[in-house]
User: Fold these one by one.
Assistant:
Number 1:
Amino acid sequence: MKILLYGINYSPELTGIGKYSGEQARWLARQGHAVRVVTAPPYYPHWQVGEGYSAWRYRTEQDDGVTVIRCPLYVPRQPSALTRVLHLSSFAASSLLAVLGQVRWKPDLVILVVPTLFCAPQALLLARLCGARSVLHIQDYEVDAMFGLGIGAGSRLRRLALGLERWLLRRFDRVSTISSGMLDKARDKGVHSKRLLFFPNWSETARFRQVPRNLALLQRLGVAPGTRVLLYAGNIGEKQGLELILDAAKAHLHRPELVFLIVGQGTGKARLLERVNRDGLRNVLFAPLQAYEDLPALLASVDGHLVIQKRGVADSVLPSKLTNILAVGGHAIITADPDTTLGRLCSEHPGIAVLVEPESVAALNAGIERVLALPARNEVALNYAREFLDKERILQRFMAQV
């Protein structure tokens, strides 16, 4: 089968959507499919185009049997509501000809990964011209996330954006997304249940199983021996409300045996660093993104994992970091309301994580105390990962359904 995967994020990005799109494309190629990818140069989560790539040039490369076509895009230094729209629309514009140029190749399956929905018209047009099946895979509900953060909150603009999103979603042959709550949201947006697919993010579970604690790795990141560690690893952006971690750290300054480790990059990092210095939060450490090879050891070496989100976005985005936390048997503290996807996960699988009220430092502090009292490994999380998060099972099931 000829498969075109279309999306703004792709390998070698180490976190988020790009990681999963890269793994999916390479897996499809190993199954014998002819796979092409139309994407942008790597830029996430640093919001800076990776070394060796250009933001303004087209480029074609080979990635483990996959043909990757990189298209220019605008990458803002400090993303805002306006510059994010320009960023997404620049990729939609630059990739238009690259996508429609695939008419001669005649793909059998066109998969668009959202964000960004700006690319939906050309994905649909290509599928129609080639007689291909079209799949919209939703990693983030970008419209809901935007309004959930209070961006562009005018009611007229909101109605227009949601109406256009609803119209586009109903034009694809299949719509897949990564959680039960996000499937419910697609139904609310008018997508018929028969066209919906559950396609969760996965973990390479074998790599994360029975990984020992690596004290040398922690020391390299600045953690003193004998210290208990609460980890946030991933994008340091606006969606999560990571100032809450600093509030919790301030409340725990009297406990020298406890440290908050923030590993990652993003647009909000400078702001967090400034506050740490201003408030003298000596129990907060920062480290850059770690190599994927070191990720299992990092996740297995800490006492608790902070999965922090603001109220209002917990069903618009699902943190991809959670899959590997569960696969390693980690104890996660999740800030989400009980009626969200993450809240239902915790109620349906008691013990899988500690659920606390979002945007409440008191609730987060109570969750931290609960996690620190738990055994080293979370057996509920391990069993869930083995059953529901295995990469091979998930990708095989997806291809059987599209």
Note: The first strand starts at residue 2 and ends at 6.
Number 2:
Amino acid sequence: MRDDEDDTGEAAVETATLPLDAWHRAKGARMVEFAGYWMPIQYEGIMAEHQWTRANAGLFDVSHMGQLILSGEGVAEALETLVPGDISALKPGRMRYSLLLAEDGGILDDLMITGGDHELYMVVNGAVKWDDIAHLREHLPDAIGLNHMDEQALLALQGPKAAAALERLVPGVGALVFMQAGGFDWNGVPLGISRSGYTGEDGFEISVPAAHVGALADALCAMEEVKPIGLGARDSLRLEAGLPLYGHDLDPATDPVEGDLGFAISKRRREEGGFPGAARILGHLADGAPRKRVGLLVDGKLPVREGAKLFDGETEIGVATSGGFAPSVGAPIAMGYVPTGLSAPGTAIAAEVRGKRVPCTVAAMPFVPHKYVRKQGA
């Protein structure tokens, strides 16, 4: 067996490093493999980092995500053949959450799209970015350009003190509102900044040339309200915010209505269709899907983890797709799929944990209110 093969005889895939890898290690991060990269799961502890972000400002390295530029005449209309959103109405600097759909309407990825002049900026999930790029290249017209911005890093600054901290470094950034983006300058370094994130808190995502990301991270963490935060707290924060994680709460077997993401299907697209799986998805919008993603409040202290079977009496009805202790709630919570008839908040079901049935109650999401800064009157 060669050194670059595993015990199956196939070529081993080496875990990649992020531009900030040495920075994380110097900060005492515990590193784990995630989405093909070494990433920091925690620095001083998940609970402390979670609570710091809810009260102050947490800095997350999300450079594993895929940053793409689609360009060319008719790029928005071309992308609309693959996603269910109204992309052609997206003005420069405005953002939209959308879904890359398989031919049958299953979800290949969830992503963020920002409008531009004859181009679109997209952020896709790290674990499937290469699949996404291949899918886009295969299905978009040859005239549409696709640039993978692999020399850009991506940071997320999240929490109630994020705006004040970032404004100190990048004056004017505080004028952005939720789901709005713009270009900024920091000491001659071009930054693409959006007011968005994955924690339910106010915050920003910052696209920065990888050569300058260490200096920017240092400048942010020099502020007393900013600390580096790992993957563990990112997961507990997004779970409390009711935000799904692709590959866990969403997958190709799930369509947008089942995933409780009907809001991502715009009014015009509902009327016109023209996106993959439109017949299935529009049918579920009209008549209801057979199952639905729901939140679960767990009775007691035993956490319900991903993969736990869900029961109505003795009948197995579904599965938990995410779960854990929620520091801001003070109790375990979970997310999972149940039949639509059992999806109303307040419905009592049970989860199987270590051979025991743990009582759960279907709950409305988010578990913790979102604190996005929206445009007045929006």
Note: Residues 1-5 have pLDDT under 50 and may be disordered.
Number 3:
Amino acid sequence: MHSSRGHLLTEQNNPNSVHLDQLSSVEIVELFNREDAQTLRAIHQAREQLAQAIDLTSEALKRGGRLFYVGAGTSGRLGVLDAAECPPTFCTPPELVQGIIAGGKDALVKSSEGLEDRKADGESAIAQHQINSEDVVVGITAGGTTPYVHGALQAAQARGATTIFLACIPQNDLSVKVDVDIRLLVGAEVLAGSTRLKAGTATKMALNILSTGAMVKLGKVYGNRMVDVAVTNEKLRDRALRILQDLTPLSREESALLLEKSGNRVKTALLMQWEGLTREEAEKRQI
């Protein structure tokens, strides 16, 4: 790795924003809007690698493995965010998708970027989570060089885990040996070096695609509906009833009764209705 990171794409000066400090508020918004279009192009260009990541991840989860996101700073926070949103969206156990961030929970709410330089911490995080050959580890580092992430990936590889690298610099800048190498080339940031902007946006998009795609492959979705969702508040109950009404001939009142019988699980309720199963039989059918 280079001692100076000024050559990296994520550290470059953006010619389109050299007069950022002189722009009006509307001009700032318009500039960001134009630049953010590059995030969509970056995802499109990485579509094959993202698809490969979905396939490998879903296969690992079907075998009983887990998905881990590892990062520092913004990259780490985005990984924790995506992991935290899987249980309410797909009714997965919290341990199935996990986010590991340099500095732990404290780093979610306050800057801990200094901790990203400790490669050994990344290695020890892999050991602490007892990552094994059934698991998938996604190392997220916008600038590509974060020692914490590289330490984690190397430790994960040593344990036989599937490894995925997610960065916003071209492979020519930094070569890594992983199972899937995803590069989101969004160009230089509007605010030079601030990777919480375009790089962060593209990273969140990629993680959304990866986790949602894997859950689709696991049978957590019917059509485009969240059928494997636990009803834990009024919004989710209303959504559950609408799904049941749309996918069965039942009225809202009948749907409410079925939902109650299913233990407030939409997927269970659908199987009970479609297959004429008891709750226990329906639960045994599910992944």
Note: The radius of gyration is 21 Å.
